Amino acid sequence: MRIGELATKTGVSVRALRYYEEQGLLAAARSSGGQRHYLDDAIDRVYLIQMLYAAGLSSRTILDLLPCVDAKVNTPQSRALLRAERDRIDRQITQLRQARERLDAVIEFSESSASGCTRTDSEALSTPATV
Amino acid sequence: MRIGELATKTGVSVRALRYYEEQGLLAAARSSGGQRHYLDDAIDRVYLIQMLYAAGLSSRTILDLLPCVDAKVNTPQSRALLRAERDRIDRQITQLRQARERLDAVIEFSESSASGCTRTDSEALSTPATV
DNA sequence: GTAAAACCTGACGCGCGTGTGAGGGACAAG
DNA sequence: CTTGTCCCTCACACGCGCGTCAGGTTTTAC
Q: Could you read off the pLDDT of B22-44 as tens digits, one per residue?
Protein backbone atom coordinates (compact mmCIF):
# COMPACT_ATOMS: atom_id res chain seq x y z
CA MET A 1 0.00 0.00 0.00
CA ARG A 2 1.07 3.60 -0.49
CA ILE A 3 1.59 6.20 2.20
CA GLY A 4 -1.84 7.78 1.99
CA GLU A 5 -3.59 4.49 2.63
CA LEU A 6 -1.33 3.71 5.56
CA ALA A 7 -2.04 7.14 6.95
CA THR A 8 -5.82 6.74 6.82
CA LYS A 9 -5.64 3.18 8.15
CA THR A 10 -3.56 4.17 11.15
CA GLY A 11 -4.88 7.65 11.72
CA VAL A 12 -1.36 9.01 11.56
CA SER A 13 -0.53 11.88 9.22
CA VAL A 14 1.48 11.38 6.08
CA ARG A 15 3.99 13.84 7.43
CA ALA A 16 4.45 11.75 10.54
CA LEU A 17 4.97 8.56 8.56
CA ARG A 18 7.67 10.19 6.50
CA TYR A 19 9.24 11.41 9.72
CA TYR A 20 9.26 7.86 11.12
CA GLU A 21 11.14 6.69 8.06
CA GLU A 22 13.59 9.56 8.41
CA GLN A 23 14.23 8.45 11.97
CA GLY A 24 14.80 4.88 10.84
CA LEU A 25 11.72 3.54 12.59
CA LEU A 26 9.67 2.50 9.60
CA ALA A 27 11.17 1.04 6.44
CA ALA A 28 9.48 1.39 3.08
CA ALA A 29 10.12 -0.10 -0.32
CA ARG A 30 10.20 2.33 -3.20
CA SER A 31 8.52 2.06 -6.56
CA SER A 32 10.46 2.93 -9.71
CA GLY A 33 8.98 6.38 -9.45
CA GLY A 34 10.24 6.85 -5.91
CA GLN A 35 6.95 6.35 -4.10
CA ARG A 36 6.85 4.53 -0.77
CA HIS A 37 5.18 1.14 -0.57
CA TYR A 38 4.37 -0.60 2.68
CA LEU A 39 3.46 -4.15 3.66
CA ASP A 40 0.43 -4.80 5.81
CA ASP A 41 2.51 -5.30 8.93
CA ALA A 42 3.50 -1.64 8.73
CA ILE A 43 0.14 -0.89 10.32
CA ASP A 44 1.06 -2.69 13.54
CA ARG A 45 4.45 -1.12 13.36
CA VAL A 46 2.96 2.34 13.31
CA TYR A 47 0.70 1.50 16.24
CA LEU A 48 3.73 0.29 18.18
CA ILE A 49 5.67 3.43 17.40
CA GLN A 50 2.75 5.58 18.47
CA MET A 51 2.43 3.59 21.67
CA LEU A 52 6.06 4.17 22.52
CA TYR A 53 5.84 7.85 21.67
CA ALA A 54 2.80 8.09 23.91
CA ALA A 55 4.87 6.51 26.65
CA GLY A 56 7.29 9.39 26.37
CA LEU A 57 10.09 7.62 24.52
CA SER A 58 12.16 9.61 22.04
CA SER A 59 12.70 8.62 18.44
CA ARG A 60 16.24 7.72 19.30
CA THR A 61 15.23 5.45 22.14
CA ILE A 62 12.57 3.79 20.03
CA LEU A 63 15.17 3.26 17.35
CA ASP A 64 17.32 1.45 19.86
CA LEU A 65 14.42 -0.60 21.20
CA LEU A 66 12.79 -1.75 17.98
CA PRO A 67 15.45 -4.37 17.15
CA CYS A 68 14.80 -5.88 20.58
CA VAL A 69 11.06 -5.93 20.01
CA ASP A 70 11.67 -7.60 16.68
CA ALA A 71 13.74 -10.16 18.57
CA LYS A 72 16.54 -9.54 16.15
CA VAL A 73 18.88 -8.32 18.80
CA ASN A 74 19.20 -9.82 22.23
CA THR A 75 22.33 -8.77 24.02
CA PRO A 76 23.02 -7.86 27.62
CA GLN A 77 23.08 -4.24 26.52
CA SER A 78 19.72 -4.46 24.79
CA ARG A 79 18.14 -6.12 27.80
CA ALA A 80 19.55 -3.42 30.05
CA LEU A 81 18.06 -0.81 27.74
CA LEU A 82 14.68 -2.49 27.86
CA ARG A 83 14.71 -2.63 31.62
CA ALA A 84 15.85 0.97 31.87
CA GLU A 85 12.96 2.19 29.75
CA ARG A 86 10.46 0.03 31.58
CA ASP A 87 11.68 1.47 34.86
CA ARG A 88 11.44 4.97 33.47
CA ILE A 89 7.85 4.30 32.52
CA ASP A 90 7.20 2.97 36.01
CA ARG A 91 8.54 6.15 37.53
CA GLN A 92 6.42 8.22 35.20
CA ILE A 93 3.33 6.26 36.19
CA THR A 94 4.14 6.91 39.82
CA GLN A 95 4.40 10.63 39.14
CA LEU A 96 1.12 10.62 37.28
CA ARG A 97 -0.59 8.79 40.10
CA GLN A 98 0.65 11.39 42.58
CA ALA A 99 -0.70 14.20 40.43
CA ARG A 100 -3.96 12.32 40.03
CA GLU A 101 -4.31 11.90 43.76
CA ARG A 102 -3.63 15.59 44.25
CA LEU A 103 -6.31 16.54 41.78
CA ASP A 104 -8.68 14.01 43.26
CA ALA A 105 -8.29 15.57 46.66
CA VAL A 106 -9.08 18.97 45.21
CA ILE A 107 -12.09 17.57 43.37
CA GLU A 108 -13.39 15.84 46.44
CA PHE A 109 -13.10 19.00 48.48
CA SER A 110 -14.64 21.24 45.86
CA GLU A 111 -17.62 18.96 45.28
CA SER A 112 -18.38 18.71 48.96
CA SER A 113 -17.87 22.42 49.44
CA ALA A 114 -20.51 25.12 49.70
CA SER A 115 -20.83 26.33 46.14
CA GLY A 116 -20.36 22.73 45.12
CA CYS A 117 -24.04 22.15 45.77
CA THR A 118 -25.17 24.41 42.97
CA ARG A 119 -25.84 21.84 40.33
CA THR A 120 -26.17 23.40 36.92
CA ASP A 121 -27.27 22.31 33.48
CA SER A 122 -23.73 22.32 32.18
CA GLU A 123 -22.72 19.93 34.88
CA ALA A 124 -25.74 17.74 34.27
CA LEU A 125 -24.63 17.51 30.66
CA SER A 126 -21.00 16.74 31.29
CA THR A 127 -21.87 14.16 33.92
CA PRO A 128 -24.13 11.62 32.21
CA ALA A 129 -25.41 9.93 35.31
CA THR A 130 -24.29 10.09 38.90
CA VAL A 131 -26.79 7.26 39.29
CA MET B 1 13.61 34.94 50.24
CA ARG B 2 15.09 35.85 46.89
CA ILE B 3 14.99 33.83 43.71
CA GLY B 4 18.35 32.14 44.12
CA GLU B 5 17.41 30.74 47.50
CA LEU B 6 14.08 29.50 46.23
CA ALA B 7 15.89 27.86 43.33
CA THR B 8 18.31 25.96 45.53
CA LYS B 9 15.60 25.00 47.99
CA THR B 10 13.36 23.56 45.31
CA GLY B 11 15.99 22.29 42.92
CA VAL B 12 14.40 24.31 40.13
CA SER B 13 16.48 26.67 38.06
CA VAL B 14 16.26 30.41 38.39
CA ARG B 15 15.28 30.59 34.75
CA ALA B 16 12.38 28.21 35.35
CA LEU B 17 11.13 30.25 38.31
CA ARG B 18 11.12 33.41 36.24
CA TYR B 19 9.28 31.49 33.55
CA TYR B 20 6.63 30.40 36.05
CA GLU B 21 6.05 34.01 36.99
CA GLU B 22 5.84 34.97 33.33
CA GLN B 23 3.15 32.31 32.91
CA GLY B 24 1.28 33.65 35.91
CA LEU B 25 1.82 30.55 38.00
CA LEU B 26 4.01 32.01 40.71
CA ALA B 27 3.56 35.50 42.09
CA ALA B 28 6.46 37.42 43.60
CA ALA B 29 6.71 40.67 45.50
CA ARG B 30 9.32 43.12 44.31
CA SER B 31 11.88 45.04 46.30
CA SER B 32 12.48 48.70 45.59
CA GLY B 33 15.31 47.65 43.33
CA GLY B 34 13.07 45.33 41.34
CA GLN B 35 14.22 42.02 42.79
CA ARG B 36 11.76 39.21 43.41
CA HIS B 37 10.91 38.22 46.95
CA TYR B 38 9.03 35.06 47.85
CA LEU B 39 7.22 33.82 50.90
CA ASP B 40 7.96 30.39 52.32
CA ASP B 41 4.84 28.89 50.81
CA ALA B 42 6.32 29.52 47.38
CA ILE B 43 8.34 26.37 47.94
CA ASP B 44 5.26 24.16 48.03
CA ARG B 45 3.85 26.10 45.14
CA VAL B 46 6.87 25.29 43.04
CA TYR B 47 6.63 21.62 43.97
CA LEU B 48 2.99 21.61 42.94
CA ILE B 49 3.77 23.26 39.63
CA GLN B 50 6.52 20.75 38.98
CA MET B 51 4.17 17.91 39.83
CA LEU B 52 1.59 19.14 37.35
CA TYR B 53 4.21 19.68 34.66
CA ALA B 54 5.42 16.16 35.27
CA ALA B 55 1.86 14.97 34.79
CA GLY B 56 1.95 16.46 31.31
CA LEU B 57 -0.13 19.57 31.95
CA SER B 58 0.69 22.72 30.03
CA SER B 59 1.37 26.07 31.64
CA ARG B 60 -1.97 27.26 30.42
CA THR B 61 -3.85 24.35 31.97
CA ILE B 62 -1.98 24.73 35.24
CA LEU B 63 -2.86 28.41 35.20
CA ASP B 64 -6.51 27.46 34.95
CA LEU B 65 -6.27 24.82 37.66
CA LEU B 66 -4.34 26.70 40.32
CA PRO B 67 -7.25 28.86 41.46
CA CYS B 68 -9.22 25.65 42.04
CA VAL B 69 -6.39 24.12 44.03
CA ASP B 70 -6.21 27.29 46.07
CA ALA B 71 -9.92 26.86 46.69
CA LYS B 72 -10.43 30.40 45.53
CA VAL B 73 -12.58 29.36 42.65
CA ASN B 74 -15.21 26.68 42.80
CA THR B 75 -17.66 26.86 39.95
CA PRO B 76 -19.25 24.15 37.84
CA GLN B 77 -16.81 25.08 35.11
CA SER B 78 -13.79 24.76 37.38
CA ARG B 79 -14.96 21.39 38.62
CA ALA B 80 -15.47 20.22 35.05
CA LEU B 81 -11.94 21.34 34.27
CA LEU B 82 -10.56 19.45 37.23
CA ARG B 83 -12.35 16.29 36.24
CA ALA B 84 -11.27 16.66 32.63
CA GLU B 85 -7.64 16.87 33.60
CA ARG B 86 -7.93 14.01 36.04
CA ASP B 87 -9.46 11.90 33.29
CA ARG B 88 -6.72 12.90 30.92
CA ILE B 89 -4.18 11.75 33.45
CA ASP B 90 -6.05 8.49 33.82
CA ARG B 91 -5.94 7.91 30.09
CA GLN B 92 -2.25 8.69 30.05
CA ILE B 93 -1.64 6.21 32.84
CA THR B 94 -3.52 3.59 30.85
CA GLN B 95 -1.35 4.28 27.82
CA LEU B 96 1.77 4.05 29.89
CA ARG B 97 0.65 0.77 31.37
CA GLN B 98 0.05 -0.65 27.92
CA ALA B 99 3.51 0.37 26.80
CA ARG B 100 4.94 -1.05 29.98
CA GLU B 101 3.22 -4.38 29.41
CA ARG B 102 4.51 -4.45 25.87
CA LEU B 103 8.06 -3.88 27.02
CA ASP B 104 7.63 -6.39 29.80
CA ALA B 105 6.58 -9.03 27.32
CA VAL B 106 9.67 -8.31 25.25
CA ILE B 107 11.86 -8.41 28.33
CA GLU B 108 10.39 -11.67 29.49
CA PHE B 109 10.93 -13.25 26.12
CA SER B 110 14.46 -11.96 25.69
CA GLU B 111 15.57 -13.07 29.12
CA SER B 112 14.26 -16.58 28.61
CA SER B 113 15.63 -16.76 25.11
CA ALA B 114 18.78 -18.49 23.89
CA SER B 115 21.30 -15.68 23.88
CA GLY B 116 19.75 -14.51 27.10
CA CYS B 117 21.83 -17.13 28.86
CA THR B 118 25.14 -15.56 27.94
CA ARG B 119 25.77 -13.61 31.10
CA THR B 120 28.51 -11.05 30.66
CA ASP B 121 30.51 -8.75 32.86
CA SER B 122 28.64 -5.68 31.70
CA GLU B 123 25.38 -7.23 32.78
CA ALA B 124 26.84 -8.27 36.07
CA LEU B 125 27.69 -4.62 36.61
CA SER B 126 24.36 -3.17 35.58
CA THR B 127 22.45 -5.76 37.56
CA PRO B 128 23.61 -5.52 41.15
CA ALA B 129 22.23 -8.81 42.35
CA THR B 130 19.75 -11.21 40.80
CA VAL B 131 20.03 -12.92 44.19
C1' DG C 1 34.07 52.98 48.87
C1' DT C 2 34.76 49.01 46.29
C1' DA C 3 34.58 44.47 44.78
C1' DA C 4 31.98 40.32 44.41
C1' DA C 5 27.89 38.05 44.19
C1' DA C 6 23.30 37.95 43.09
C1' DC C 7 19.78 39.75 40.40
C1' DC C 8 17.41 42.15 36.43
C1' DT C 9 15.43 42.26 31.32
C1' DG C 10 15.63 40.83 26.68
C1' DA C 11 16.48 37.79 23.30
C1' DC C 12 18.19 33.83 20.75
C1' DG C 13 18.67 28.62 20.65
C1' DC C 14 17.36 23.86 21.30
C1' DG C 15 14.97 19.40 20.91
C1' DC C 16 11.20 17.04 18.97
C1' DG C 17 7.15 15.58 16.70
C1' DT C 18 4.33 17.76 13.25
C1' DG C 19 1.82 21.26 10.37
C1' DT C 20 2.20 23.53 6.22
C1' DG C 21 3.40 25.34 1.77
C1' DA C 22 6.15 25.53 -2.59
C1' DG C 23 7.40 23.48 -6.71
C1' DG C 24 7.46 19.49 -9.20
C1' DG C 25 6.97 14.14 -10.58
C1' DA C 26 3.98 9.54 -10.65
C1' DC C 27 0.03 7.18 -12.01
C1' DA C 28 -4.80 5.60 -12.85
C1' DA C 29 -9.13 7.02 -15.57
C1' DG C 30 -11.24 9.15 -19.51
C1' DC D 1 -2.71 12.93 -24.27
C1' DT D 2 -4.81 15.24 -20.60
C1' DT D 3 -6.73 15.75 -16.12
C1' DG D 4 -7.01 14.90 -11.38
C1' DT D 5 -5.24 12.78 -7.45
C1' DC D 6 -1.65 11.17 -4.97
C1' DC D 7 3.07 11.42 -4.03
C1' DC D 8 7.89 13.36 -3.89
C1' DT D 9 11.65 16.45 -1.63
C1' DC D 10 13.11 20.48 0.58
C1' DA D 11 12.45 23.75 4.01
C1' DC D 12 10.38 27.00 7.20
C1' DA D 13 7.31 27.39 11.45
C1' DC D 14 5.30 26.19 15.79
C1' DG D 15 4.68 25.26 20.82
C1' DC D 16 6.85 24.69 25.10
C1' DG D 17 9.84 24.47 29.00
C1' DC D 18 14.07 25.90 29.70
C1' DG D 19 19.47 26.86 28.80
C1' DT D 20 22.34 30.45 27.95
C1' DC D 21 24.58 34.73 26.76
C1' DA D 22 24.77 39.90 26.87
C1' DG D 23 24.74 44.12 29.11
C1' DG D 24 23.34 46.43 33.04
C1' DT D 25 21.57 47.24 38.16
C1' DT D 26 21.06 45.89 43.11
C1' DT D 27 22.58 43.98 47.21
C1' DT D 28 25.96 42.25 50.34
C1' DA D 29 30.45 41.87 52.54
C1' DC D 30 34.62 43.77 53.62
A: 999 999 999 999 999 999 999 99
Q: pLDDT tens for residues A44-92?
A: 999 999 999 999 999 999 999 999 999 888 999 889 999 999 999 999 9
> Across-strand partners of B90?
none
- Distance, in Å, from the CA atom of B86 to the CA atom of B81, rounded to the nearest integer, reads 9
Inter-chain touch A122–B76, beta carbons under 8 Å: yes
Q: Do B95 and A120 touch (CB under 8 A)?
A: no
Which nucleotide is nearest to B60 if distance is taken from CA to C1'?
D16
pTM over 0.85: no
Euclidean distance between the first and the last CA atom of chain B, given in angstroms as a whole number: 49
| Cβ–Cβ < 8 Å for A64, A35 | no
